[in-house]
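Structure request: Eukaryotic translation initiation factor 3 subunit F, Anas platyrhynchos.
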Amino acid sequence: CFSVPHNESEDEVAVDMEFAKNMYELHKKVSPSEIILGWYATGHDITEHSVLIHEYYSREAHNPIHLTVDTSLQNSRMSIKAYVSAPMGVPGKTMGVMFTPLTVKYVYYDTERIGVDLIMKTCFSPNRVIGLSSDLQQVGSASARIQDTLTMVLQYAEDVLSGKVAADNTVGRFLMDLINQVPKISAEDFETMLNSNINVSLL
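Returned structure:
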């Protein structure tokens, strides 16, 4: 993923195609198996300029994906949307392009999640600055999240048993698989293991 310089005015858009080509050639030297899937732009909506840029990337990739990242934070959130294009119009007459939205799923590594969680904490800081958490604070935060999750699961189970909520077989199977993954150990062994890990974390 790399950015490409461009200039926009009310009537036209100019993209540095030579820069895009050179960057892609350099990228292929590092990751030869990766190909162009599409392009991204900041903003909360698709513009007339999007059609022109998308036309260029249609020559670089089959049915490219257009990703928009709303850095203006409309509705107080950074919305990320994806689209593919399809031609529309009357054959032999003026043709246009229609962008069809796609379902976006967020996938991340655990190490990436740690960084994002830390950045999100700056939302509650007046000067938008926050320090790194100590190991003990991280253990405390993780324990609090586990406790909150267990409280939600327990409340759901109690609501199902009392008839307040209809039972969901998918959720039931998921919880059963989760329980079966818990090692079968005695309370004494578990306490010893927990205390040992806590001591290691505090060192």
